[in-house]
Specification:
Elements lengths: L1 H13 L4 H15 L5 H11 L6 H13 L3 H13 L5 H17 L2 H18 L4 H11 L10 H10 L3 H7 L1 H18 L18 H10 L1 H16 L4 H19 L5 H34 L2 H12 L3 H18 L2 H18 L4 H15 L7 H10 L3 H24 L2 H11 L2
């Protein structure tokens, strides 16, 4: 029966039935065949959605939507530029660094590539970058979005696995920095064949200390947000849910009344976009609750754990196989959908291999954001294509070295768990 339930789910996905509906049908089928009380399905849905922690998701989504319509992205990019200078390579490095800053504000890969890519891709093309390469840089840098806190997918993982979201946020900092560093190194190794270098211009402006201080002052409201929001979480003054509300209030006040770079109709569009996103997300979480209830009652995670451990007890092999499964899932499935399906199934297996819920959360999130950069459904690729006017196929070719760099980082955090666990342990030790 378990196999049939999964085959139904996969079959529905293959004929392009929405994930939320596919997982709901498969879950109801499993309950019907197993003669389970259907009322328990409704109970599971209510229990899952009736979560104070889960309230953080719509507010972080809304904050990201508001910021993508204002000038925050351009000001963050300007700060990175003035510190790096006006060398031809600087715009790419500035893009990657600005992605890290913007990630700490929006928590969304798609919001990051849409907001920054719309600015930087045309700039890179005008400076001699091949269009596909410019799109690949923006799409790659944006995957840092869901890793550097706050992170929407980390909130969902924390709710699904009863893991501290504050600890997950802290644990994402070092992997996020590693990703940015790996991408900058990759750019330096691949730029030669992808940029038409312009003649050196002696008249290129040199940024003074005054220029740098002015850029910081001009972008002070953008720089203050992660300090206020994340500082509240890490200091224990606010919960992640409360911090998400503060993030929305802060972005509205700054965008409408201080910077005045957004109109009321833009705010209305932000709410509309958030509601549309949230509707699909809540349906997915609700139907996944039914599916999860069935697999739990049928002890599928435990059976999978026993089967794999019967073949090998080597943690290196187990983690390698788990990474392969999640990487493949990330290529075909939206990150939140993959978390609600695979996290409860795979968690007992990785726990048996000696991996904590916290470390696995970061491993899973990094796996899934790599999926936003890989075909056939990598959202970052399509957004970068839309912004740059370059075909998705061209961007994919240029993005391959960045995919490899991201996988190397994934392997590092998989087999060196201290990279994710050090900061939470250090901060919680105070």
């Amino acid at each position: 029966m378990d196999i049939i339930m999964f085959l139904i789910f996969i079959g529905l996905l293959l004929i392009e039935v929405p994930v939320a509906i596919a997982i709901g049908i498969a879950g109801v089928f499993g309950m019907w065949v197993g003669n389970l009380n259907m009322q328990l399905a409704a109970t599971a849905v209510v229990y899952t959605l009736n979560s104070f922690t889960l309230i953080a998701v719509p507010f972080f989504i809304l904050a990201g939507n508001i910021m993508s319509r204002g000038s925050i992205a351009s000001k963050l990019l300007k700060i990175a530029q003035v510190f790096l200078g006006e060398r031809q390579e600087s715009i790419a490095i500035a893009t990657l660094i600005a992605c890290g800053f913007f990630a700490a504000l929006s928590g969304s890969a798609v919001a990051t590539v849409a907001a920054l890519g719309a600015i930087t891709i045309p700039m890179m093309i005008s400076q001699g970058y091949k269009p596909g390469y410019a799109g690949a840089i923006a799409a790659s840098g944006a995957i840092v979005g869901p890793i550097i806190p706050p992170s929407i997918i980390m909130v969902v993982y924390g709710v699904q696995t009863n893991t501290s979201i504050s600890d997950l946020f802290i644990a994402g900092v070092i992997p996020g920095i590693l990703l940015i560093t790996a991408f900058i190194i990759t750019f330096q190794l691949t730029k030669k064949n992808n940029i038409k270098f312009l003649p050196l211009n002696s008249d290129v402006r040199k940024y003074s200390i005054k220029d740098k201080l002015w850029a910081i002052w001009d972008g002070k409201w953008a720089l203050l947000m992660p300090i206020i929001v994340l500082g509240g979480i890490y200091s224990g003054l606010t919960t992640p849910t409360e911090a998400s509300v503060i993030a929305v209030d802060y972005t509205i006040i700054v965008s409408l009344f201080i910077e005045r770079d957004m109109k009321w109709r833009d705010l209305a569009e932000s709410f509309k976009s958030t509601i549309l996103t949230l509707g699909g997300l809540l349906i997915l979480l609700g139907t996944a609750a039914t599916f999860g209830y069935v697999i739990t009652l049928n002890q599928i995670p435990e059976n999978l754990c026993s089967a794999v451990l019967g073949l090998t007890s080597n943690p290196i092999v187990i983690l390698f196989l788990v990474n392969i499964v999640i990487l493949i899932a990330g290529c075909f499935m939206e990150a939140i959908a993959a978390i609600v399906i695979f996290a409860p199934i795979l968690l007992p297996l990785v726990n048996a291999a000696g991996v904590s819920n916290l470390a696995f959360g970061i491993i899973m999130c990094v796996n899934l954001v790599i999926g936003t950069l890989t075909p056939p459904f990598g959202l970052n690729l399509f957004v970068a294509s839309s912004v740059s006017g370059v075909s998705v196929q061209d961007i994919i070719k240029k993005a391959v070295p960045y995919m490899v760099a991201a996988v190397i980082v994934l392997l590092l955090i998989t087999y060196i768990p201290q990279l994710t666990e050090f900061l939470p342990e250090y901060i919680n030790g105070f």
